[in-house]
Amino acid sequence: MTARERLAWARDHGLLLFAVTLVSYLALAPPHLVGGDNAEFATLGAAGGGVAHPSGFPAYLLWMRLWSWLPGSTPAHVTALSTVLLAVAQVAVLHAAARAWGAKPLAAGLAVAIYAASPIALRTYTTADVFAFNSLVVALVLWLAAAEGPLRGARRVAALGLVAGLGLSNNLTCVLVMPVGLWGAIRGLRELDRGRLRAAALGVGALVVGMTPYVYLFVARGGPLTWGPIDDLGDLVRHFLRLEYGAMSLSSHGEPLPWTHQQVGLWGELGAGWLWLPGALGLGVLGARAARGPARAGWACLAASFVLAGPVLVHLFGLPLVGMGRYIVERFYLLPAELLVVPVAVGLSWIGARVRAPSTPSARVALALAPTIVFLAVGARALVRVDHGHSPAMHRALVRLFERAPERAVIIATGDNFSFGQAYVQGVLGIGTSVDYLDSRSLASPRGERYAAALGISPWPRRGDPVRWFVGAALATGRPVMIGPDLVDSIDGWSSYPDGIMLRVVSPGAPVPAAAEVYADNVAWYDGLDLDYRPPLRSGDWAMQTHWNYTHIWYRLSVLLHEAGLDDEAAAADLRSRQLAPR
Protein backbone atom coordinates (compact mmCIF):
# COMPACT_ATOMS: atom_id res chain seq x y z
CA MET A 1 0.00 0.00 0.00
CA THR A 2 1.46 3.33 -1.07
CA ALA A 3 1.59 6.41 1.16
CA ARG A 4 -1.27 7.95 -0.81
CA GLU A 5 -3.34 4.80 -0.41
CA ARG A 6 -2.65 4.74 3.34
CA LEU A 7 -3.78 8.35 3.64
CA ALA A 8 -6.94 7.58 1.68
CA TRP A 9 -7.64 4.59 3.92
CA ALA A 10 -7.14 6.70 7.06
CA ARG A 11 -9.47 9.39 5.65
CA ASP A 12 -12.16 6.90 4.69
CA HIS A 13 -12.09 5.29 8.14
CA GLY A 14 -12.18 8.58 10.05
CA LEU A 15 -8.85 8.11 11.84
CA LEU A 16 -8.21 11.83 12.25
CA LEU A 17 -11.65 12.34 13.78
CA PHE A 18 -10.99 9.34 16.01
CA ALA A 19 -7.66 10.79 17.18
CA VAL A 20 -9.06 14.27 17.86
CA THR A 21 -12.01 12.79 19.75
CA LEU A 22 -9.65 10.71 21.87
CA VAL A 23 -7.49 13.70 22.79
CA SER A 24 -10.52 15.91 23.47
CA TYR A 25 -12.30 13.36 25.64
CA LEU A 26 -9.14 12.61 27.62
CA ALA A 27 -8.60 16.32 28.21
CA LEU A 28 -12.19 16.74 29.47
CA ALA A 29 -12.11 13.78 31.88
CA PRO A 30 -12.41 15.32 35.38
CA PRO A 31 -10.19 14.22 38.28
CA HIS A 32 -13.04 14.59 40.80
CA LEU A 33 -16.57 13.35 41.41
CA VAL A 34 -19.29 15.15 39.47
CA GLY A 35 -22.51 13.38 40.43
CA GLY A 36 -24.33 10.65 42.31
CA ASP A 37 -24.01 7.67 39.96
CA ASN A 38 -20.56 8.90 38.96
CA ALA A 39 -19.50 8.73 42.62
CA GLU A 40 -20.81 5.17 42.86
CA PHE A 41 -18.97 3.93 39.78
CA ALA A 42 -15.78 5.81 40.64
CA THR A 43 -15.84 4.13 44.05
CA LEU A 44 -16.51 0.65 42.70
CA GLY A 45 -13.94 1.04 39.95
CA ALA A 46 -11.26 2.27 42.33
CA ALA A 47 -12.00 0.06 45.35
CA GLY A 48 -12.02 -3.27 43.50
CA GLY A 49 -15.14 -4.67 45.15
CA GLY A 50 -18.83 -4.09 45.64
CA VAL A 51 -22.16 -4.32 43.81
CA ALA A 52 -23.65 -1.35 41.95
CA HIS A 53 -27.31 -0.37 42.18
CA PRO A 54 -29.77 -2.46 40.11
CA SER A 55 -29.28 -3.90 37.55
CA GLY A 56 -25.69 -4.25 38.75
CA PHE A 57 -23.80 -3.25 35.55
CA PRO A 58 -21.14 -5.97 36.07
CA ALA A 59 -19.60 -5.67 32.58
CA TYR A 60 -18.79 -2.02 33.21
CA LEU A 61 -17.42 -2.74 36.68
CA LEU A 62 -15.11 -5.39 35.25
CA TRP A 63 -14.04 -3.00 32.47
CA MET A 64 -13.01 -0.39 35.02
CA ARG A 65 -11.08 -2.99 36.99
CA LEU A 66 -9.33 -4.10 33.79
CA TRP A 67 -8.06 -0.53 33.20
CA SER A 68 -7.36 0.38 36.83
CA TRP A 69 -3.65 0.70 35.97
CA LEU A 70 -4.19 3.80 33.80
CA PRO A 71 -2.06 6.77 34.94
CA GLY A 72 -4.79 9.08 36.20
CA SER A 73 -4.19 11.84 38.73
CA THR A 74 -6.84 10.50 41.14
CA PRO A 75 -8.90 7.28 41.45
CA ALA A 76 -11.92 9.11 39.99
CA HIS A 77 -9.77 10.27 37.08
CA VAL A 78 -8.66 6.70 36.34
CA THR A 79 -12.25 5.49 36.09
CA ALA A 80 -13.10 8.46 33.86
CA LEU A 81 -10.19 7.61 31.54
CA SER A 82 -11.32 3.98 31.27
CA THR A 83 -14.78 5.25 30.27
CA VAL A 84 -13.29 7.53 27.62
CA LEU A 85 -11.78 4.47 25.93
CA LEU A 86 -15.29 3.03 25.52
CA ALA A 87 -16.64 6.31 24.19
CA VAL A 88 -13.88 6.72 21.62
CA ALA A 89 -14.26 3.11 20.49
CA GLN A 90 -17.93 3.92 19.94
CA VAL A 91 -16.94 6.79 17.64
CA ALA A 92 -14.89 4.46 15.45
CA VAL A 93 -17.60 1.79 15.35
CA LEU A 94 -20.35 4.32 14.59
CA HIS A 95 -18.34 5.60 11.64
CA ALA A 96 -18.01 2.04 10.32
CA ALA A 97 -21.71 1.38 10.98
CA ALA A 98 -22.83 4.44 9.04
CA ARG A 99 -20.70 3.35 6.08
CA ALA A 100 -22.09 -0.19 6.32
CA TRP A 101 -25.61 1.24 6.04
CA GLY A 102 -24.68 3.02 2.81
CA ALA A 103 -23.20 6.39 3.85
CA LYS A 104 -20.11 7.86 2.21
CA PRO A 105 -17.00 8.27 4.39
CA LEU A 106 -17.22 12.08 4.55
CA ALA A 107 -20.92 12.02 5.41
CA ALA A 108 -20.32 9.36 8.08
CA GLY A 109 -17.56 11.50 9.59
CA LEU A 110 -19.74 14.62 9.66
CA ALA A 111 -22.66 12.80 11.32
CA VAL A 112 -20.45 11.14 13.93
CA ALA A 113 -18.67 14.45 14.63
CA ILE A 114 -21.92 16.30 15.37
CA TYR A 115 -23.16 13.52 17.64
CA ALA A 116 -19.86 13.01 19.51
CA ALA A 117 -19.48 16.75 20.17
CA SER A 118 -23.02 17.32 21.46
CA PRO A 119 -23.20 18.67 25.03
CA ILE A 120 -24.68 15.55 26.61
CA ALA A 121 -22.18 13.26 24.86
CA LEU A 122 -19.19 15.38 25.85
CA ARG A 123 -20.32 15.58 29.45
CA THR A 124 -21.44 11.97 29.92
CA TYR A 125 -18.79 10.08 27.95
CA THR A 126 -15.92 11.70 29.86
CA THR A 127 -16.96 10.63 33.37
CA ALA A 128 -17.38 7.24 35.02
CA ASP A 129 -20.90 6.14 34.08
CA VAL A 130 -22.48 3.24 32.20
CA PHE A 131 -23.76 5.17 29.19
CA ALA A 132 -20.53 5.04 27.17
CA PHE A 133 -20.51 1.22 27.35
CA ASN A 134 -24.19 1.16 26.37
CA SER A 135 -23.54 3.42 23.39
CA LEU A 136 -20.67 1.21 22.22
CA VAL A 137 -22.95 -1.83 22.37
CA VAL A 138 -25.59 -0.04 20.28
CA ALA A 139 -22.98 1.03 17.73
CA LEU A 140 -21.75 -2.57 17.45
CA VAL A 141 -25.32 -3.82 16.88
CA LEU A 142 -25.82 -1.26 14.10
CA TRP A 143 -22.55 -2.27 12.46
CA LEU A 144 -22.93 -6.04 12.77
CA ALA A 145 -26.56 -6.02 11.58
CA ALA A 146 -25.95 -3.91 8.46
CA ALA A 147 -26.04 -5.49 5.02
CA GLU A 148 -22.42 -4.47 4.48
CA GLY A 149 -21.36 -5.30 8.03
CA PRO A 150 -18.04 -7.01 8.79
CA LEU A 151 -19.37 -10.56 9.27
CA ARG A 152 -21.65 -12.98 7.46
CA GLY A 153 -23.73 -16.03 8.29
CA ALA A 154 -23.14 -17.82 11.58
CA ARG A 155 -20.39 -15.38 12.56
CA ARG A 156 -22.81 -12.48 12.23
CA VAL A 157 -25.37 -14.32 14.40
CA ALA A 158 -22.83 -15.26 17.07
CA ALA A 159 -21.31 -11.78 17.22
CA LEU A 160 -24.73 -10.17 17.61
CA GLY A 161 -25.60 -12.63 20.39
CA LEU A 162 -22.34 -11.93 22.23
CA VAL A 163 -22.75 -8.16 21.96
CA ALA A 164 -26.37 -8.40 23.13
CA GLY A 165 -25.28 -10.38 26.18
CA LEU A 166 -22.56 -7.90 27.06
CA GLY A 167 -25.06 -5.09 26.60
CA LEU A 168 -27.50 -6.71 29.02
CA SER A 169 -24.59 -7.11 31.44
CA ASN A 170 -24.19 -3.35 31.40
CA ASN A 171 -27.44 -1.41 30.88
CA LEU A 172 -30.86 -2.85 30.16
CA THR A 173 -31.86 -0.02 27.82
CA CYS A 174 -29.78 -1.67 25.08
CA VAL A 175 -32.72 -4.07 24.68
CA LEU A 176 -34.51 -1.22 22.90
CA VAL A 177 -32.38 -1.83 19.78
CA MET A 178 -33.61 -5.42 19.66
CA PRO A 179 -35.48 -4.85 16.37
CA VAL A 180 -32.19 -4.05 14.61
CA GLY A 181 -30.35 -6.90 16.36
CA LEU A 182 -33.01 -9.49 15.46
CA TRP A 183 -33.13 -8.23 11.88
CA GLY A 184 -29.36 -8.68 11.68
CA ALA A 185 -29.53 -12.17 13.17
CA ILE A 186 -32.25 -13.19 10.69
CA ARG A 187 -30.10 -11.80 7.88
CA GLY A 188 -27.21 -13.90 9.13
CA LEU A 189 -29.36 -17.05 9.14
CA ARG A 190 -30.60 -16.34 5.63
CA GLU A 191 -27.03 -16.06 4.43
CA LEU A 192 -26.52 -19.74 5.26
CA ASP A 193 -27.39 -22.57 2.88
CA ARG A 194 -27.49 -25.09 5.72
CA GLY A 195 -26.89 -25.30 9.47
CA ARG A 196 -29.30 -22.52 10.35
CA LEU A 197 -30.49 -24.28 13.50
CA ARG A 198 -26.90 -24.72 14.62
CA ALA A 199 -26.17 -21.05 13.92
CA ALA A 200 -29.24 -19.99 15.90
CA ALA A 201 -28.10 -22.13 18.84
CA LEU A 202 -24.65 -20.59 18.52
CA GLY A 203 -26.20 -17.13 18.76
CA VAL A 204 -28.15 -18.08 21.90
CA GLY A 205 -25.01 -19.59 23.41
CA ALA A 206 -23.07 -16.42 22.64
CA LEU A 207 -25.83 -14.40 24.33
CA VAL A 208 -25.43 -16.50 27.48
CA VAL A 209 -21.64 -16.12 27.36
CA GLY A 210 -22.06 -12.36 27.03
CA MET A 211 -24.10 -12.32 30.24
CA THR A 212 -21.54 -14.23 32.32
CA PRO A 213 -20.24 -10.99 33.92
CA TYR A 214 -23.25 -11.31 36.23
CA VAL A 215 -21.38 -14.11 37.98
CA TYR A 216 -19.07 -11.36 39.24
CA LEU A 217 -21.86 -10.03 41.46
CA PHE A 218 -21.71 -13.24 43.55
CA VAL A 219 -18.08 -12.59 44.44
CA ALA A 220 -18.02 -8.76 44.41
CA ARG A 221 -18.04 -8.58 48.19
CA GLY A 222 -16.23 -6.14 50.42
CA GLY A 223 -15.14 -2.68 49.49
CA PRO A 224 -16.66 0.54 50.78
CA LEU A 225 -19.86 0.30 48.73
CA THR A 226 -22.19 -2.65 48.10
CA TRP A 227 -25.86 -2.49 47.11
CA GLY A 228 -27.07 -5.41 49.20
CA PRO A 229 -25.73 -8.97 49.13
CA ILE A 230 -26.26 -11.21 46.10
CA ASP A 231 -26.38 -14.64 47.74
CA ASP A 232 -28.43 -16.76 45.36
CA LEU A 233 -30.05 -16.84 41.93
CA GLY A 234 -33.22 -15.23 43.28
CA ASP A 235 -31.23 -12.23 44.56
CA LEU A 236 -29.52 -11.94 41.18
CA VAL A 237 -32.79 -12.06 39.23
CA ARG A 238 -34.36 -9.40 41.45
CA HIS A 239 -31.29 -7.21 41.05
CA PHE A 240 -31.19 -7.74 37.28
CA LEU A 241 -34.89 -6.88 36.85
CA ARG A 242 -34.57 -3.77 39.05
CA LEU A 243 -37.57 -4.88 41.09
CA GLU A 244 -36.50 -2.58 43.92
CA TYR A 245 -36.96 0.36 41.53
CA GLY A 246 -39.96 -0.86 39.58
CA ALA A 247 -38.47 -2.17 36.30
CA MET A 248 -37.33 0.60 33.93
CA SER A 249 -39.30 3.52 35.29
CA LEU A 250 -37.98 6.71 36.85
CA SER A 251 -40.59 8.46 38.94
CA SER A 252 -40.76 11.28 41.47
CA HIS A 253 -43.99 9.83 42.98
CA GLY A 254 -45.48 13.31 42.72
CA GLU A 255 -48.32 14.67 40.64
CA PRO A 256 -48.60 12.91 37.24
CA LEU A 257 -47.05 14.94 34.44
CA PRO A 258 -48.79 15.53 31.10
CA TRP A 259 -47.54 13.12 28.45
CA THR A 260 -46.22 16.05 26.41
CA HIS A 261 -43.78 17.06 29.15
CA GLN A 262 -41.20 14.36 28.44
CA GLN A 263 -41.77 14.54 24.68
CA VAL A 264 -41.03 18.26 24.52
CA GLY A 265 -37.84 17.70 26.51
CA LEU A 266 -36.70 14.84 24.29
CA TRP A 267 -37.35 16.50 20.95
CA GLY A 268 -35.95 19.82 22.09
CA GLU A 269 -32.68 18.21 23.20
CA LEU A 270 -32.45 16.00 20.11
CA GLY A 271 -33.00 19.01 17.87
CA ALA A 272 -30.41 21.14 19.65
CA GLY A 273 -27.88 18.31 19.84
CA TRP A 274 -28.27 17.59 16.13
CA LEU A 275 -28.15 21.28 15.16
CA TRP A 276 -31.79 21.03 14.00
CA LEU A 277 -31.30 20.75 10.22
CA PRO A 278 -29.13 17.58 10.22
CA GLY A 279 -31.51 16.06 12.76
CA ALA A 280 -34.53 16.87 10.62
CA LEU A 281 -32.73 15.41 7.60
CA GLY A 282 -32.06 12.20 9.53
CA LEU A 283 -35.68 11.84 10.59
CA GLY A 284 -36.82 12.38 7.02
CA VAL A 285 -34.42 9.75 5.68
CA LEU A 286 -35.42 7.30 8.43
CA GLY A 287 -39.10 7.64 7.59
CA ALA A 288 -38.57 7.52 3.82
CA ARG A 289 -36.27 4.46 3.88
CA ALA A 290 -38.58 2.62 6.28
CA ALA A 291 -41.54 3.24 3.98
CA ARG A 292 -40.03 2.17 0.66
CA GLY A 293 -36.91 0.85 -0.95
CA PRO A 294 -35.14 -2.51 -1.26
CA ALA A 295 -33.80 -2.44 2.34
CA ARG A 296 -36.94 -1.08 3.97
CA ALA A 297 -37.17 -3.99 6.46
CA GLY A 298 -33.87 -3.03 8.04
CA TRP A 299 -34.74 0.65 8.06
CA ALA A 300 -38.15 -0.14 9.56
CA CYS A 301 -36.37 -1.99 12.37
CA LEU A 302 -34.07 1.00 12.87
CA ALA A 303 -37.11 3.30 13.00
CA ALA A 304 -38.81 0.99 15.51
CA SER A 305 -35.69 1.05 17.70
CA PHE A 306 -35.61 4.84 17.54
CA VAL A 307 -39.26 5.08 18.62
CA LEU A 308 -38.70 2.62 21.48
CA ALA A 309 -35.50 4.30 22.68
CA GLY A 310 -36.88 7.81 22.33
CA PRO A 311 -40.61 8.63 22.64
CA VAL A 312 -41.60 5.34 24.29
CA LEU A 313 -38.76 5.21 26.84
CA VAL A 314 -39.07 8.80 28.02
CA HIS A 315 -42.82 8.32 28.43
CA LEU A 316 -41.95 6.00 31.36
CA PHE A 317 -40.17 8.80 33.19
CA GLY A 318 -42.21 10.67 35.77
CA LEU A 319 -39.51 13.16 36.70
CA PRO A 320 -40.15 16.83 35.92
CA LEU A 321 -37.50 18.23 33.60
CA VAL A 322 -36.31 20.89 36.01
CA GLY A 323 -33.38 20.84 38.39
CA MET A 324 -32.05 17.35 39.08
CA GLY A 325 -34.91 15.75 37.16
CA ARG A 326 -33.54 17.06 33.89
CA TYR A 327 -30.00 16.03 34.78
CA ILE A 328 -31.13 12.45 35.46
CA VAL A 329 -33.35 12.05 32.39
CA GLU A 330 -31.31 13.73 29.66
CA ARG A 331 -28.57 11.08 29.74
CA PHE A 332 -31.12 8.69 28.27
CA TYR A 333 -31.43 10.96 25.22
CA LEU A 334 -28.04 9.65 24.08
CA LEU A 335 -29.54 6.42 22.76
CA PRO A 336 -32.08 7.90 20.31
CA ALA A 337 -29.51 10.56 19.33
CA GLU A 338 -27.03 7.81 18.49
CA LEU A 339 -29.58 5.93 16.37
CA LEU A 340 -29.95 9.05 14.21
CA VAL A 341 -26.27 8.93 13.19
CA VAL A 342 -26.99 6.39 10.44
CA PRO A 343 -29.93 8.20 8.73
CA VAL A 344 -28.17 11.59 9.09
CA ALA A 345 -25.05 10.16 7.42
CA VAL A 346 -27.10 8.57 4.63
CA GLY A 347 -28.98 11.84 4.12
CA LEU A 348 -25.74 13.83 3.91
CA SER A 349 -24.46 11.28 1.37
CA TRP A 350 -27.57 11.85 -0.75
CA ILE A 351 -26.93 15.59 -0.66
CA GLY A 352 -23.25 15.14 -1.40
CA ALA A 353 -24.01 13.05 -4.49
CA ARG A 354 -25.86 16.03 -5.93
CA VAL A 355 -23.07 18.51 -5.26
CA ARG A 356 -20.18 18.86 -7.64
CA ALA A 357 -17.02 17.46 -6.09
CA PRO A 358 -14.14 19.96 -5.68
CA SER A 359 -11.22 19.47 -8.01
CA THR A 360 -8.46 21.53 -6.40
CA PRO A 361 -6.08 19.86 -3.90
CA SER A 362 -6.76 22.48 -1.23
CA ALA A 363 -10.52 21.92 -1.48
CA ARG A 364 -10.06 18.16 -1.18
CA VAL A 365 -7.91 18.66 1.92
CA ALA A 366 -10.59 20.91 3.40
CA LEU A 367 -13.22 18.24 2.82
CA ALA A 368 -11.00 15.61 4.42
CA LEU A 369 -10.62 17.83 7.48
CA ALA A 370 -14.30 18.81 7.60
CA PRO A 371 -15.44 16.19 10.19
CA THR A 372 -12.64 17.17 12.56
CA ILE A 373 -13.37 20.88 12.12
CA VAL A 374 -17.08 20.27 12.74
CA PHE A 375 -16.29 18.25 15.88
CA LEU A 376 -14.09 21.02 17.28
CA ALA A 377 -16.57 23.78 16.39
CA VAL A 378 -19.63 22.00 17.80
CA GLY A 379 -17.65 20.88 20.87
CA ALA A 380 -16.41 24.42 21.58
CA ARG A 381 -20.04 25.56 21.57
CA ALA A 382 -20.82 22.97 24.28
CA LEU A 383 -17.84 23.57 26.57
CA VAL A 384 -19.59 25.94 28.98
CA ARG A 385 -22.36 23.40 29.55
CA VAL A 386 -19.82 20.62 29.97
CA ASP A 387 -17.86 22.74 32.45
CA HIS A 388 -21.00 23.16 34.56
CA GLY A 389 -21.69 19.42 34.42
CA HIS A 390 -18.10 18.65 35.47
CA SER A 391 -18.09 21.09 38.38
CA PRO A 392 -16.06 19.96 41.43
CA ALA A 393 -18.63 21.53 43.77
CA MET A 394 -20.14 18.27 45.04
CA HIS A 395 -16.76 16.61 45.46
CA ARG A 396 -15.26 19.48 47.44
CA ALA A 397 -18.30 19.81 49.67
CA LEU A 398 -18.14 16.12 50.61
CA VAL A 399 -14.40 16.20 51.26
CA ARG A 400 -14.84 19.26 53.50
CA LEU A 401 -17.75 17.60 55.32
CA PHE A 402 -15.75 14.52 56.30
CA GLU A 403 -12.58 16.50 57.00
CA ARG A 404 -14.42 18.68 59.52
CA ALA A 405 -16.86 16.14 60.98
CA PRO A 406 -16.23 15.37 64.68
CA GLU A 407 -14.58 12.06 65.55
CA ARG A 408 -17.05 9.15 65.54
CA ALA A 409 -19.87 11.39 64.32
CA VAL A 410 -23.05 9.89 62.86
CA ILE A 411 -24.26 11.60 59.68
CA ILE A 412 -27.77 10.93 58.37
CA ALA A 413 -28.61 12.45 54.99
CA THR A 414 -30.56 11.85 51.77
CA GLY A 415 -29.35 11.66 48.19
CA ASP A 416 -27.00 9.72 45.94
CA ASN A 417 -24.42 12.48 46.27
CA PHE A 418 -24.09 11.69 49.98
CA SER A 419 -24.63 7.91 49.95
CA PHE A 420 -22.26 7.25 47.04
CA GLY A 421 -19.96 10.22 47.56
CA GLN A 422 -19.19 9.32 51.16
CA ALA A 423 -18.07 5.85 50.06
CA TYR A 424 -15.52 7.46 47.74
CA VAL A 425 -14.34 10.06 50.25
CA GLN A 426 -14.05 7.58 53.12
CA GLY A 427 -13.36 4.28 51.39
CA VAL A 428 -11.12 5.46 48.55
CA LEU A 429 -9.58 8.72 49.78
CA GLY A 430 -9.47 7.61 53.43
CA ILE A 431 -10.94 10.87 54.82
CA GLY A 432 -13.10 10.86 57.96
CA THR A 433 -13.02 7.10 58.38
CA SER A 434 -14.26 7.23 61.99
CA VAL A 435 -17.56 8.76 60.85
CA ASP A 436 -20.62 6.57 60.24
CA TYR A 437 -22.88 7.62 57.36
CA LEU A 438 -26.53 6.49 57.23
CA ASP A 439 -28.75 6.93 54.18
CA SER A 440 -32.15 8.10 55.45
CA ARG A 441 -33.90 6.24 52.61
CA SER A 442 -32.58 2.89 53.88
CA LEU A 443 -33.27 3.21 57.60
CA ALA A 444 -36.55 1.27 57.36
CA SER A 445 -35.04 -1.46 55.13
CA PRO A 446 -32.84 -4.46 55.97
CA ARG A 447 -29.88 -2.13 55.48
CA GLY A 448 -31.18 -0.15 58.48
CA GLU A 449 -30.69 -3.25 60.61
CA ARG A 450 -27.06 -3.37 59.52
CA TYR A 451 -26.72 0.33 60.37
CA ALA A 452 -28.08 -0.35 63.87
CA ALA A 453 -25.68 -3.25 64.40
CA ALA A 454 -22.73 -1.09 63.33
CA LEU A 455 -23.75 1.66 65.77
CA GLY A 456 -24.39 -0.78 68.60
CA ILE A 457 -28.03 0.26 69.00
CA SER A 458 -31.36 -1.55 68.83
CA PRO A 459 -32.96 -1.85 65.38
CA TRP A 460 -35.79 0.50 64.43
CA PRO A 461 -38.94 -0.85 66.20
CA ARG A 462 -41.07 -0.49 63.04
CA ARG A 463 -43.13 2.38 64.41
CA GLY A 464 -42.66 6.12 64.30
CA ASP A 465 -40.15 8.02 62.20
CA PRO A 466 -37.01 5.92 61.56
CA VAL A 467 -34.85 9.04 61.23
CA ARG A 468 -35.97 10.27 64.64
CA TRP A 469 -35.33 6.82 66.11
CA PHE A 470 -31.78 6.59 64.78
CA VAL A 471 -30.95 10.16 65.80
CA GLY A 472 -32.16 9.58 69.35
CA ALA A 473 -30.45 6.21 69.65
CA ALA A 474 -27.14 7.56 68.35
CA LEU A 475 -27.28 10.58 70.69
CA ALA A 476 -27.90 8.22 73.59
CA THR A 477 -24.53 6.58 72.90
CA GLY A 478 -22.83 9.95 73.30
CA ARG A 479 -21.85 10.27 69.65
CA PRO A 480 -22.20 13.58 67.71
CA VAL A 481 -25.11 13.46 65.26
CA MET A 482 -25.51 15.54 62.09
CA ILE A 483 -28.45 15.41 59.66
CA GLY A 484 -29.22 16.86 56.25
CA PRO A 485 -31.30 20.07 56.37
CA ASP A 486 -34.15 18.33 54.54
CA LEU A 487 -34.61 15.98 57.54
CA VAL A 488 -35.23 18.71 60.11
CA ASP A 489 -38.95 17.85 60.39
CA SER A 490 -37.97 14.42 61.73
CA ILE A 491 -36.42 15.98 64.84
CA ASP A 492 -39.29 18.37 65.55
CA GLY A 493 -38.98 19.60 69.13
CA TRP A 494 -35.24 18.96 69.35
CA SER A 495 -32.63 21.68 68.98
CA SER A 496 -30.17 21.85 66.08
CA TYR A 497 -27.87 24.40 64.50
CA PRO A 498 -26.02 24.80 61.16
CA ASP A 499 -22.67 23.03 60.90
CA GLY A 500 -21.07 23.17 57.45
CA ILE A 501 -23.60 21.61 55.08
CA MET A 502 -25.43 19.70 57.83
CA LEU A 503 -27.42 20.46 60.98
CA ARG A 504 -25.84 19.40 64.26
CA VAL A 505 -28.48 17.87 66.54
CA VAL A 506 -28.37 18.72 70.24
CA SER A 507 -29.29 16.05 72.78
CA PRO A 508 -32.54 16.87 74.60
CA GLY A 509 -31.71 18.95 77.66
CA ALA A 510 -28.17 19.77 76.49
CA PRO A 511 -27.20 23.44 75.97
CA VAL A 512 -27.12 24.90 72.45
CA PRO A 513 -23.89 26.74 71.52
CA ALA A 514 -24.12 30.52 71.40
CA ALA A 515 -25.12 31.99 68.03
CA ALA A 516 -21.81 33.90 67.74
CA GLU A 517 -19.87 30.66 68.26
CA VAL A 518 -21.95 28.84 65.64
CA TYR A 519 -21.39 31.72 63.22
CA ALA A 520 -17.60 31.70 63.77
CA ASP A 521 -17.42 27.93 63.25
CA ASN A 522 -19.36 28.14 59.97
CA VAL A 523 -17.25 31.04 58.71
CA ALA A 524 -14.15 28.91 59.35
CA TRP A 525 -15.82 25.91 57.65
CA TYR A 526 -16.59 27.85 54.48
CA ASP A 527 -13.37 29.85 54.43
CA GLY A 528 -11.56 26.53 54.07
CA LEU A 529 -13.81 25.44 51.18
CA ASP A 530 -12.34 25.88 47.70
CA LEU A 531 -14.98 27.68 45.62
CA ASP A 532 -12.66 28.46 42.71
CA TYR A 533 -14.88 27.14 39.91
CA ARG A 534 -17.61 28.40 37.62
CA PRO A 535 -20.68 29.28 39.73
CA PRO A 536 -23.44 26.73 39.08
CA LEU A 537 -26.63 27.50 37.18
CA ARG A 538 -30.18 26.63 38.17
CA SER A 539 -30.49 24.45 35.07
CA GLY A 540 -29.97 21.32 37.14
CA ASP A 541 -26.94 19.27 38.17
CA TRP A 542 -25.17 18.18 41.33
CA ALA A 543 -23.29 21.48 41.63
CA MET A 544 -26.65 23.26 41.70
CA GLN A 545 -27.88 20.88 44.39
CA THR A 546 -24.75 21.49 46.45
CA HIS A 547 -25.07 25.26 46.27
CA TRP A 548 -28.75 25.19 47.19
CA ASN A 549 -27.60 23.33 50.30
CA TYR A 550 -25.08 26.11 51.03
CA THR A 551 -27.76 28.73 50.54
CA HIS A 552 -30.18 26.95 52.84
CA ILE A 553 -27.60 26.58 55.61
CA TRP A 554 -26.60 30.25 55.53
CA TYR A 555 -30.21 31.37 55.47
CA ARG A 556 -30.90 29.31 58.60
CA LEU A 557 -27.79 30.81 60.14
CA SER A 558 -28.97 34.36 59.37
CA VAL A 559 -32.28 33.63 61.11
CA LEU A 560 -30.46 32.22 64.13
CA LEU A 561 -28.23 35.31 64.35
CA HIS A 562 -31.15 37.69 63.94
CA GLU A 563 -33.04 35.99 66.76
CA ALA A 564 -29.93 36.38 68.93
CA GLY A 565 -29.83 40.13 68.22
CA LEU A 566 -26.63 39.92 66.14
CA ASP A 567 -27.99 41.97 63.24
CA ASP A 568 -24.62 42.73 61.57
CA GLU A 569 -23.66 39.05 61.55
CA ALA A 570 -27.18 38.15 60.37
CA ALA A 571 -26.84 40.55 57.43
CA ALA A 572 -23.44 39.06 56.55
CA ALA A 573 -24.90 35.54 56.69
CA ASP A 574 -27.83 36.57 54.50
CA LEU A 575 -25.45 38.10 51.97
CA ARG A 576 -23.37 34.92 51.83
CA SER A 577 -26.56 32.91 51.40
CA ARG A 578 -27.43 34.92 48.29
CA GLN A 579 -23.86 34.87 46.96
CA LEU A 580 -23.72 31.07 47.13
CA ALA A 581 -27.09 30.55 45.41
CA PRO A 582 -27.08 29.06 41.89
CA ARG A 583 -27.41 31.69 39.20
Report what the structure shows:
With 583 residues, the chain is mainly alpha-helical. The protein is 62% helix and 4% strand. It contains 27 helices and 7 strands. It has helices at residues 3-12, 15-28, 36-47, 58-66, 75-100, 105-116, 119-124, 131-145, 153-168, 178-190, 196-210, 216-219, 233-240, 259-273, 277-291, 296-315, 324-330, 334-339, 341-352, 361-389, 393-404, 416-428, 446-455, 466-476, 515-527, 542-563, 567-580; strands at residues 250-251, 317-318, 410-413, 436-439, 481-483, 496-499, 502-505. A 5-stranded mixed sheet has the order 4-3-5-7-6, with helices on both faces. Helix 3 packs parallel to helix 22, helix 15 crosses helix 16 and helix 15 packs across helix 19. It is globular and about 85 Å long. 50% of the residues are buried. The model has no long low-confidence stretch (mean pLDDT 92).
Layout of helices and strands:
Blueprint: H1 3-12, H2 15-28, H3 36-47, H4 58-66, H5 75-100, H6 105-116, H7 119-124, H8 131-145, H9 153-168, H10 178-190, H11 196-210, H12 216-219, H13 233-240, E1 250-251, H14 259-273, H15 277-291, H16 296-315, E2 317-318, H17 324-330, H18 334-339, H19 341-352, H20 361-389, H21 393-404, E3 410-413, H22 416-428, E4 436-439, H23 446-455, H24 466-476, E5 481-483, E6 496-499, E7 502-505, H25 515-527, H26 542-563, H27 567-580
Parallel strand pairs: 1-2, 3-4, 3-5
Antiparallel strand pairs: 5-7, 6-7
- Main pleated sheet: 5 strands, mixed
Q: Over all CA atoms, what is the radius of gyration?
A: 26 Å
- Beta-strand content bin: under 5%
Biggest sheet strand line-up: 4-3-5-7-6
Broad shape: globular
**Percentage of helical residues?**
55-70%
Low-confidence stretches: none
- The rounded distance between the terminal residues' Cα atoms is 57 Å
DSSP, total strands: 7
- How would you state the average pLDDT, rounded? 92
Number of helices: 27
Based on secondary structure, the structural category is: mainly alpha
